[in-house]
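Readers of this paper often ask what the protein records in our data store actually look like. Such a record has a labelled line for the sequence and another for the backbone structure tokens. The tokens are whole numbers drawn from a learned vocabulary of local backbone shapes. We quote a single record here, exactly as it is kept in our systems:
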Amino acid sequence: MRVSQKMVLLTCLYLAQGLPYGFFKQALPVMMRDRGASLPEIGLLSLLTLPWALKFLWAPLVDGLGGRRRWIFWLQVVSCLLFLGLGAWNPDSGYGVLAWGFFLANLLAATQDIASDGLAVTILAPHERGWGNGIQVAGYRVGMILGGGFILMAFGLLGWRGMFWLIAAMMVLCLLPLLWARPAKRTVTPVRGSWKVLWQRMRRAHFMPWVAVAAFYKFGDAIGSNMLQPFFRDQGMALWEIGKLLGTIGFVAGLLGALAGGALVVKLGRLHAVLWFGVIQAIAVALYAVVGADTPMLIRDGVCALEHFTGGMATAAIFTVMMDVCAPETAATDYAIQASAVVMATSLAGVVGGFVAEHAGYVVNFLVSGGLSLLGAWWFGRRYPALVAHLT
């Protein structure tokens, strides 16, 4: 498979995963806040991402049963059907059924992510992983913006049903490169899936300490970023304004940041890229503390652009290192363990952010977020050389 084909395939796979997650993380919190939901209630929505945190438990099945391409295809088909069903639901009936629907959507997307990550590890050569992870993060962010900011803007025109049908249609389009791509020849024999394999991978020397470092690296930033939508809403911004801010400035900045981060990982080296991207990300999220309702639009938009840009850079860099420690024969399992830990950390951060913002205010929330982000970058720089040297 040519490099260009790999990049197109990865872009579409991760864009499809970002669509439902973007709606859940960006559009739904704004809609709930507009209906009077409290900040702790919005923060508790992060618990619906539980499948992303626990996906490592069934990752060995994806490694050992069936081809990864087959997993991806059928999971995405079922996800499309689910969103068509959600479109037929009346939101005025309450959030109960909707919450279960999004829990199932997260379960399907998390399982698809296992297969996609395993496929990416095996088709990307080490020198392609910087760009590959930049493409993956960019594609995922495009999906999040389309499913969040773009859908939020389109909600007034399409209505509830049309909104979900649009998400399903975009997911169908993302399947086309998978159907056209030629299957790669197996160079390694996959390990038959079982919990025994999972336990063996987790017991690798230095592996779990590294997982803790990677998870904490993203924890601090998530405390602040999870509160952005209600933060803007409480400043008096209309739903379409929030959608425009995240769907244009956030889209472009996050996309460029992911691509820049993926390219610079190769030039700067893994250690320096992840360390310094983490530092500037910490500064960027802390800058929200100076943004208020009377802040000039140019400054507000500039802070939003900087936070999205640096977030894309840091994410692409840390994901590249996470890919480096995966063994080809257990790639999906190895990566799923690390990714699950990151999701656990960011989900917990969402809950923490909701309570901090409610009881201490947004300013304290963003300062705490920036401080912990800085601490995460420092811890990575301190532990990375010794840990990863034993794992790669």
User: Anything to note?
Assistant: The two ends are 25 Å apart (CA to CA).
